[in-house]
Amino acid sequence: MDTKIGAVDACKAACNDVGAPPNGAVSTISNTPINCNPSEATLGRHLARRLVQIGVNDVFAVPGDFNLTLLDHLLAEPGLNLVGCCNELNAGYAADGYARSRGVGACVVTFTVGGLSVINAIAGAYSENLPLICIVGGPNSNDYGTNRVLHHTIGLSDFSQELRCFQTVTCFQAVVNNLEDAHELIDTAISTALKECKPVYISVGCNLAAIPHPTFSREPVPFSLSPKLSNKMGLEAAVEATAEFLNKAVKPVMVGGPKMRVAEACEAFVELADVCGYPIAVMPSAKGMVPEHHPRFIGTYWGAVSTAFCAEIVESADAYLFAGPIFNDYSSVGYSLLLKKEKAIILQPDRVVIANGPTFGCILMKDFLHALAKRLKCNTTAYENYHRIYVPEGHPLKCAPQEPLRVNVLFQHIQNMLSGDTAVIAETGDSWFNCQKLKLPKGCGYEFQMQYGSIGWSVGATLGYAQAAKDKRIIACIGDGSFQVTAQDVSTMLRCGQNQIIFLINNGGYTIEVEIHDGPYNVIKNWNYTALVDAIHNGEGKCWTTKVRCEEDLVEAIETATGAKKDCLCFIEVICHKDDTSKELLEWGSRVSAANSRPPNPQ
Q: Which residues form the Thiamine pyrophosphate enzyme central domain (predicted)?
C-alpha cells in the first residue's frame, strides 16, 4: 500500500533515515488535520502546510523583494518557524544541517541573486543525499514570456538562467507561474525530494503566494509515496550467491559506507554483524552510522590513515562486504587502497555486485542485509586476529606548565566531553582527521561533509543541526580559514538562543591545503576571533568567549562552558602552532598531492 505524507510511518519510507541520528531515530511527521477558512487556502499557506506535514518546523531564509509575500504566509503557519540567516549560502548550509538531524530541510531565497548564492550549499546536499526543499521567490507571473528585463538578473529577458543552474544539482525543478497546476507541482517536488533523498527546486511567482485557489483547501487528498520494493527472485539469487561467497571465506570483514543512511540500512547492517561475527569498520564518511560501542567495532577504514590495526585486518581479509561505499580520491587516500575487486561484495542502495561476477539490480540494501543474516555462518576469525594484534592507543605527552597547547591534547579533552547528549560537527580540514579519532558514546551524533568538502560548511550546518536537535549540545570543531568564509551566522545562532560549543582552531591558515600543496596563498590574515564574536553578540543573547593558549586555559574553559555557561553559546579560540597537524593529515595530504599531480597520459 502507498504511504501518505501525512502519516507518521511515511517518514521512514520517504526519508530513508537520511540524517537520522546513529540510533536510527527519525522525525515525527504530523497528520493532524487543521481546519481553516477559505481565505487561508492560498498557495503560500499550502506550501507552508506541506513543509510542516513532512517534519520541517524551521525554514532558513534570506528575504528579498521577490519572496516577501511568500515569507508572510510561511510566518502565518502554526508550527513553522522562520529563521532569518545572514546570507543565502549559510541558509543553505543550515538547511543541510537540519536535514541531517530531521531527515528533511528547507530554505527560502530570492530570485537569481539569492538562488545563485545558495546553489553551492544545494550542490553539497545533493552530494550527501539529503532531501532539501530549496524555495525561490520568482518573478511576477505576468513577466514570463515577455521581453522585459528584470532586476536581480544578468540583464536578459530570459528568466531561465537560475533554473538551468539548478537542474544539475536538484532531482526535480518546479517553476510555479500559474495557480492551476501549482498544487501538483509543489506536491510532486516535495514527494520527489523524499523519494530520491536529494534536493529539489521550487520557484514561486512573487504575485501568487497570497491568492486563494480551490486546490489549496486545508484537507486535500494527501499525496502518496509508493514504497520501494525488492525484486524477490533477484533478492533470493543475490543472497544465495553472496552467502556462498562469504561462507567459503576464512576471515571475512564488513565495512559500512555513507550510503547506508540513504538506504535506511544502518540497523540491518548491525544486525547482520551481530549474527555473522565479522569485525565491522566504517568508511570515514560513515562515522556515526554504526555504534562504536559494538563489541566487534574496529574503527575507521581509510587506507593508510585508518584507525590503528583496522586497515591491516580489512586489507588482509579474503572477503569484504562493503555496504554503501563511495570510493573517491579522498576516501581512497589518492586511490591507494589495497583492495581487490575479486574479494569484494559491494552493496549499493538498490544493487548488489559480487566480486568479478554477477550484478543483481532492484534489490534494496536493507532487505538484502536482513535476508543475508539468515544465511551466513558465524565466523569470528578476522576479529580474533584483530584482538591478537591490537595494542591500546597511547596518550599524548603530558604538557609542561604553560606549554603551548598541542592539537592532540585539545582533542583528548574534547573526547572527555562527549556523551549521548552531544553531537560533533567536523569542518573540512584537519578536524576531519582529529574528529575521526574520537570514540563516539552511544547516542552521540556525528556529521561532516566529506564528498563535497566545502570549507565553511560547518558554521551553517551547526546552526541548522542545533535548531533541529534541541536535545543535544553541539560541539563544532572549525578551522580559522573555514570560519572566515561563513562567520556571520554566529549571529543567527545567538538570535535562536542556541548553546553550542565552538572550538575555533587558530593555526594561521588553510592547513589541509598546506599538506597537499603549500604556497603563500594558504596563509590568511589573522583575526581577533573572540573580539569578532563579542561584537556580533553586542549584548544581545547569551554568549561567552575565551582564548586558550595552554592546557590549563583549556581545562578552565571547558569547565566554564559545561558548567556556569552551559546555557550560552560558548566560543573557545584555541591558539595552535601552524605546523601542529595530525599525522593522518600528513600522510593523506602527500598521497592526495601525488594523485593530483599525475602527469597526463601519453597521447
A: 239-356
Q: What is the dihedral of CA 347, 350, 354, 358, to 10 degrees?
A: -170
What does the mean pLDDT of the chain come to? Answer: 91
Question: What CA dihedral angle connects 405, 411, 413 and 417, to 10 degrees?
Answer: 150
Cα–Cα distance, 19 to 455 (Å, whole number): 20
Residues 447-491: tens digit of each pLDDT: 999 999 999 999 999 999 999 999 999 999 999 999 999 999 999
From the list 337, 225, 309, 325, the residue with the least C-alpha distance to 269 is 325
Rounded CA-CA distance 247/315 in Å is 18
Q: In whole angstroms, what is the distance from residue 481 CA to residue 490 CA?
A: 15
Burial class (CB in 10 A: 0-12, 13-18, 19+), 35: exposed
Give CA 167 to chain center in angstroms. 21
Residue 512 and residue 119 in contact, taking contact as beta carbons nearer than 8 Å = no
Instruction: For residue 480, say whether it is annotated as part of any ligand binding site.
Output: yes
Rounded Cα distance between 481 and 88, Å, is 20
Report the alpha-carbon distance of residue 274 to residue 294 in Å, rounded: 9
Residue 509, marked binder: yes
Taking alpha carbons only, the member of 325, 370, 371, 331 closest to residue 347 is: 325
Neighbours of 119 (CB within 10 A): 23
Residue-wise pLDDT for 339-384, tens only, equals: 999 999 999 999 999 999 899 999 999 999 999 999 999 999 999 9
CA 527, 531, 535, 536 torsion-angle sign? positive
CB of 260 within 8 A of CB of 326? no
Spatial separation of the C-alpha atoms in residues 346 and 241, rounded to whole Å: 13
Name the grid cell of 481.
580559514
Is the Cβ–Cβ distance between 405 and 399 less than 8 Å? yes
Position 15 confidence tier, pLDDT thresholds 50, 70, 90: very low
Q: Which of 297-306, 384-393, 512-521 has the lowest mean pLDDT?
A: 512-521
Mean pLDDT of 537-547: 97
Q: Is the dihedral of CA 569, 570, 576, 581 positive or negative?
A: negative
Sheet containing 132-138, strands listed edge to edge, beginning at the edge strand earlier in sequence: 81-84, 58-61, 105-110, 132-138, 200-205, 173-176
What is residue 503's three-state secondary structure?
strand
d(CA 495, CA 465): 15
Q: What pLDDT does 148 receive?
A: 87
Q: Give the span between the Cα atoms of 226 and 286, in whole angstroms.
A: 28
